[in-house]
Amino acid sequence: MSKIYFDNQISFGLLPFETVYFDEKGPHFLLEHYNRLRRAHKILKMEFDLKFEQFNNTILNEIYKVGREYGVLKVIYYNHNIYVQFREFNYAQKHIDKGIILHKSRSIKDSKNILNYLKTFNYGLNIIEDNRAKGRGYDSAIFLNEKGFVCETTYANIFFVKNGKIFTPHVSCGILKGIMRDNVIRKLKNNRYNVIKGFIKYEELNEFDECFISNSVMGILPVSRIGNISFNKRNVFEILSNEDIFMRKWIK
C-alpha cells in the first residue's frame, strides 16, 4: 500500500485548488485559473513548477475522458503532480426561476486572515455554514466580517444594485477575488455602469433594489431574498445573463 505524506498542505487545508467550468467550447477562463493557482502557491511558499501548457493539456484530456457536454473539474497541484477530478453540477433551473435565498451566517470572516483571500482546502467554515443554511431551508449563507461588513456567500461573490449603480464588497473585507467577479465588473463597466467596490453593512441591504451572485461554476444567479429582505428586480442580472461568458448549458 502506498503511503501519503501528511505535510502542512494536506494536514491543515493549505493546498490551493481551482474549479473550472467547461462546455462544448472548452474550459472557461483557463489562464485566469492557472494564474490564481500559481499565485496561491507563491504566497503560501509552496513549490510550483507547473507550466501553463501542461495545465491546459491535462484539463483538455480530462474533459475528453469525461465525455460530458458540460461540467466542472476540480484541479490541484501537489508534489509536482497535477490532479483533476470531475464534479457533478450543484445548480439547476430552479435557482434561476425562484432566485437564491441566503441566510445570515452565524460565523464571521476575519478580514486579516490571509486564507480568506486564497482558494485552498481550508473550506471547513464555508461548508459548515452552507449546510446550516440548507438545513433551515435556505440555499446558502452570507458572511459578514468582524466589522459588520458584507463579505461574500459560502461559495460566491455578491453584487447589489441601487439607482442604477452596482455595489460589491471591497476585497479588503476578507473575500476571495473571484475570476467571475472580475469578469462581471468588466462587463458592467463596458455597459457604462458605475461599479463601486465598497463597504456594505447588513443593515443597509434593504436599501438595494436587486442582488445577484457569481462564481466560475454558476456564472451568475439572481438573489431573491437575504433573511427577510427581498429583492424583486432583475434588470442588471437579465442584461448580464445574455452575455456569452455568463451563459450556462443547464439554463433553459
TrEMBL record:
Q: Which PANTHER family match?
A: AMINO-ACID AMINOTRANSFERASE, AMINODEOXYCHORISMATE LYASE
Homology family: Belongs to the class-IV pyridoxal-phosphate-dependent aminotransferase family.
* Annotated Pfam families: Aminotran_4
Q: Name the Enzyme Commission number(s) assigned to this protein.
A: 2.6.1.42
Is NAD given among the entry's keywords?
A: no
Q: Which InterPro entries match?
A: Aminotrans_IV, Aminotrans_IV_CS, Aminotransferase-like, BCAT-like_C, BCAT-like_N, Class-IV_PLP-Dep_Aminotrnsfr
Question: By what name is this protein known?
Answer: Putative branched-chain-amino-acid aminotransferase
Name the gene for this chain: ilvE_1
Alphabetical keyword list: Aminotransferase, Pyridoxal phosphate, Transferase
Species of origin reads Caloramator mitchellensis
- Which superkingdom, per the lineage? Bacteria
